């Protein structure tokens, strides 16, 4: 980083803060106290506004709604966000998609950045392997901003943004709450939750809020007995040491502390510190049914676990310069995860199909079991700073402008281990690695942004915005085999001594950078104080990056243009919001597994998404009804070829003469996301003596989805079937106590949200492969039915 950039980032960090406003953003009663529903205040446009006045397609779930819907983690939240899809392999490793903008990314550490940004308060917390899986307690709200948010949020928000907003310190008094839960998972084990917070009034102008939680999720996947014989060595392997019922349990614990200080009538300071540890055991996937496995069962031959730990420290300073608002926000995020994964399918199928087991021997020259497993260690360090100013909101002409900088370093270690192999085929410096990945990835983003709004009339407002950006991303280090195992890759391909500590030498040192400007234009018309329509054109982008394979160049940024017409209306107890849109996705960063399991990324696609989303609500006399949904027709607009070319002509060979092939035809639907997703909630509150009772029913539906953009691979993987879940709860509460009984996934649906295979689909997954051994796919399913009881008290 240039010295000037370092100084600028340091200044922003020293001045830093985390929220655009320090006001609590809880649901509040509507003016006049009438029973017309709750007003939700959001900071989607980096200032506090009534959700119904924000000309953005946004869904917000407030504190009470999150509790009522039994939301504990990100996957629970996404159920009730119609435009959002989640793809996960286990807690802490999830990818988020908006409006069908998904091409099948595998979230590889050297792959493209996500298309959706995730924020904790005002700090971006998106890492390459997914959003932080923050336990949802004492959150003010979750905001889901659909569509490109590029002007105010930048590179990490090409298709949308998820904001997790915490409850800030409250100067009004000292109070707190404690909540306990005990639950049981169908086909699985018991779990429970303990949560508490306290808000301490330190003075009339200072307060401290401290939050803590512990959660145990019982397992529900069984690792059942199995064995396999490797053809080359005739060595038989079994998993007796790892057989266990309900072996995918999770423990999550963490805490948050936030201090709020009013320096005077104009300036406030809020430092925050938050951290969480999440430990998992086992696998969260069921193997597709075979002679050995059934529903919620798998056969794994090696230890599987993860430990994901992180902390975030942020500082917010906000105040006024004359009558202009100034906010300085910044912080650091440190994340570290350790993983253990089974990789024996890779070893078995390559031996069965290609005889690779003959190359694994010990120092005496005798063949050893080619069984492989992976031990991974990832370290992330993110620095972030933003400085912004905004003019008085009551002015006819309004401006918000700022500077942004972030830098994320990702230290990558992956040991692919085959026990007892000869020293000559072991990667130098390791105990028994057949393959080592030891790399340092750095992603840098800088931007200047601004939005200018002008009230043409009392009812019509025009807004224009620009964001000028610059990014530089680099990848350096080592990946591959020893030179005793491969004469062309790994150590044999090194061109310099080790740059990254722990690597034998350097065979990768690449960087790519670019700059540009992205625009936004909006017209908003207030028909009445309770009804408005808006039209928006906005653009989002995603930075380019590095291909590890030396024969492939860096890939460039992709962009998403959004053309949207939306409306927001409130008529007494009725609410009706919606939007229709077209999104054009250009230069799509398509990523797939290639030879040796290396991810290949190229700009090779054009897609169009046409859709509609809606939100209907009714609230009166204790009855609350809501219905939300989205429909997305997301298709590629050109043929997708094996080798990219400007003409999208799959008969043209590659530049090196590589034979081309048609992988998917024009009109193919994009993978991962369903055409239709919807949810419905009905809640009735009624008096029970001096207490208040409630009963609630919620349903969620997700349509069928392609598993892969490529036609042949999709035919092997198969499509993900549609599924519907239903949740039920009933309970009572007083001014001090609350009791609730709930059931999630009432009918015990086994819906699939992701699927994986340990190597190329045509090798490890094809049921018709030449060995006759069939394929092994792992389907990641939603949690089975959970029955729980919750008790809590306020103090």
Task: Summarize this structure as a short list of keywords or feature phrases.
7 helices, Maltoporin, Chain A, 22-stranded antiparallel barrel, 795 residues, disordered N terminus, globular, 5-stranded mixed sheet
Outline the fold blueprint.
Layout (H helix, E strand, L loop, with lengths): L2 H12 L13 E2 L8 E2 L1 E2 L6 E2 L7 E5 H6 L5 H5 L5 E7 L2 E6 L17 E5 L2 E2 L14 E8 L3 H4 L6 E7 L8 E11 L4 E14 L2 E12 L4 E2 L3 E4 L4 E4 L11 E13 L5 E14 L3 E3 L9 E2 L6 E17 L2 E19 L1 H11 L18 E18 L6 E21 L15 E23 L4 E21 L27 E21 L2 E12 L15 E14 L2 E13 L2 E5 L5 E5 L2 E15 L2 E14 L3 E2 L20 E3 L11 E13 L2 E12 L8 H7 L5 E11 L3 E8 L7 E5 L4 H5 L12 E4 L4 E9 L1
Parallel strand pairs: 8-11, 15-21
Antiparallel strand pairs: 1-2, 3-4, 5-10, 6-7, 8-9, 10-11, 12-13, 12-44, 13-14, 14-18, 16-17, 18-19, 19-22, 20-43, 22-23, 23-24, 24-25, 25-26, 26-27, 27-28, 28-29, 29-30, 30-31, 31-34, 32-33, 34-35, 35-38, 36-37, 38-39, 39-40, 40-41, 41-44, 42-43
Question: Could you describe the 3D structure shown?
Answer:
The structure is a single chain. The protein is mainly beta and 795 residues long. It has a single domain (3-794), classed as Beta Barrel (Maltoporin, Chain A), CATH 2.40.170.20.
Terminal CA distance reads 50 Å
Reported CATH architecture: Beta Barrel
Shape: globular
CATH superfamily: TonB-dependent receptor, beta-barrel domain
Helix/strand-derived category reads mainly beta
Low-confidence stretches: 1-37
* Number of strand segments: 44
CATH topology: Maltoporin, Chain A
Number of domains: 1
Which CATH class is shown? Mainly Beta
Count of DSSP-assigned helices: 7
Q: Can you summarize the main beta sheet?
A: 22 strands, antiparallel, barrel
Give the percentage of residues in beta strands. over 45%
Average pLDDT confidence is 89
Residue share in helix: under 10%
């Amino acid at each position: 980083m240039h010295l000037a950039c370092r100084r600028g980032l340091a200044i922003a960090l020293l001045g830093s803060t985390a929220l655009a406003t320090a006001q609590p953003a809880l649901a509040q009663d509507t003016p006049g106290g009438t029973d017309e529903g709750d007003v939700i205040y959001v900071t989607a446009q980096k200032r506090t506004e009534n959700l119904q006045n924000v000309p953005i397609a946004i869904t917000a779930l407030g504190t009470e709604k999150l509790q009522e819907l039994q939301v504990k983690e990100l996957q629970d939240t996404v159920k009730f966000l119609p435009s959002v899809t989640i793809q996960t392999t286990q807690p802490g490793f999830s990818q988020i998609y908006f409006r069908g903008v998904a091409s099948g990314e595998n979230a590889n550490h050297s792959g493209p950045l996500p298309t959706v940004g995730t924020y904790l308060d005002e700090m971006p917390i998106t890492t390459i392997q997914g959003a932080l899986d923050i336990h949802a307690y004492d959150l003010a709200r979750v905001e889901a901003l659909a569509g490109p948010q590029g002007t105010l949020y930048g590179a990490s928000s090409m298709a949308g943004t998820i904001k997790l907003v915490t409850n800030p310190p409250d100067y009004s008094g000292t109070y707190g709450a404690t909540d306990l839960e005990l639950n049981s998972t169908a086909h699985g084990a018991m779990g429970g939750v303990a949560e508490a917070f306290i808000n301490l009034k330190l003075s009339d102008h200072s307060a401290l809020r401290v939050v803590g939680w512990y959660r145990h999720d019982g397992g529900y996947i069984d690792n059942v007995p199995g064995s396999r014989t490797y053809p080359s060595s005739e060595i038989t392997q079994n998993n007796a040491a790892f057989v266990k019922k309900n072996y995918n349990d999770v423990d999550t614990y963490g805490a948050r502390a936030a201090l709020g200080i009013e320096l005077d009538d104009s300036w406030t300071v809020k430092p925050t510190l938050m951290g969480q540890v999440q430990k998992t055991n086992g696998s969260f996937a069921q193997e597709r049914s075979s002679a050995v496995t059934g529903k919620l069962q798998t056969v794994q031959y090696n230890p599987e676990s993860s430990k994901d730990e992180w902390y975030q420290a942020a500082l917010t300073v906000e105040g006024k310069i004359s009558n202009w608002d100034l906010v300085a926000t910044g912080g650091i995020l440190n994340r570290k995860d350790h993983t253990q994964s089974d990789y024996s399918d890779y070893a078995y199928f390559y031996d069965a199909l290609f005889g690779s087991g003959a190359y694994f021997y010990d120092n005496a020259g005798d063949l050893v079991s080619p069984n492989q497993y992976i031990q991974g260690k990832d370290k992330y360090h993110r620095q972030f700073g933003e400085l912004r100013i905004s003019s008085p909101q009551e002015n006819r002409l309004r401006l918000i402008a700022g500077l942004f900088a972030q830098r994320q370093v990702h230290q990558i270690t992956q040991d692919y281990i085959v026990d007892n192999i000869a020293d000559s085929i072991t990667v130098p410096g390791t105990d028994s690695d057949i393959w080592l990945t030891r790399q340092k990835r750095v992603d840098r983003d800088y931007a200047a942004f601004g939005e200018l709004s002008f009230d043409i009339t009392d009812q019509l407002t025009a807004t224009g915005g620009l964001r000028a950006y610059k990014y530089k991303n680099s990848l350096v280090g080592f990946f591959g085999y020893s030179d005793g195992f491969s004469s062309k890759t790994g150590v044999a391909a090194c061109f310099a001594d080790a740059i990254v500590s722990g690597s034998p030498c350097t065979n990768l040192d690449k960087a790519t950078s670019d700059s540009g400007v992205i625009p936004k234009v909006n017209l908003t018309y207030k028909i009445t104080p309770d009804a408005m329509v808006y039209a928006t054109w906005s653009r989002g982008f995603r930075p380019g990056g590095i291909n590890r394979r030396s024969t492939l160049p860096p890939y460039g940024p992709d962009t998403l243009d959004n053309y949207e017409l939306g409306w927001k209306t409130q008529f007494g107890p009725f609410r009706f919001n919606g939007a229709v849109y077209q999104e054009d996705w250009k230069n799509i960063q398509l990523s797939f597994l290639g030879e040796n399991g290396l991810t290949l990324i190229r700009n090779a696609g054009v897609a169009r998404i046409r859709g509609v989303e809606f939100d209907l609500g009714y609230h009166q006399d204790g009855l609350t009804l809501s219905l939300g949904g989205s429909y997305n027709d997301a298709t590629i607009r050109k043929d997708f070829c094996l080798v990219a070319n400007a003409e999208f002509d799959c008969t043209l060979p590659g530049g090196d003469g590589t034979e081309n092939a048609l992988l998917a035809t024009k009109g193919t639907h994009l993978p991962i996301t369903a055409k239709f997703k919807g949810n419905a909630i009905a809640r009735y509150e009624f008096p029970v003596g001096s207490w208040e009772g409630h009963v609630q029913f919620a349903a969620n539906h997700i349509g069928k989805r392609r598993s892969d953009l490529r036609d042949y691979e999709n035919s092997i993987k198969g499509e993900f079937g549609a599924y519907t879940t239903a949740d039920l709860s009933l309970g009572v509460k007083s001014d001090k106590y609350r009791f609730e009984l709930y059931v999630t996934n009432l009918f015990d649906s086994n819906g699939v949200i992701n699927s994986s295979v340990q190597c190329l689909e045509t090798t490890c997954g094809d049921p018709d492969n030449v060995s006759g051994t069939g394929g092994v796919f792992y389907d990641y399913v939603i949690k089975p039915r959970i029955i729980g009881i919750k008790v809590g008290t306020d103090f």
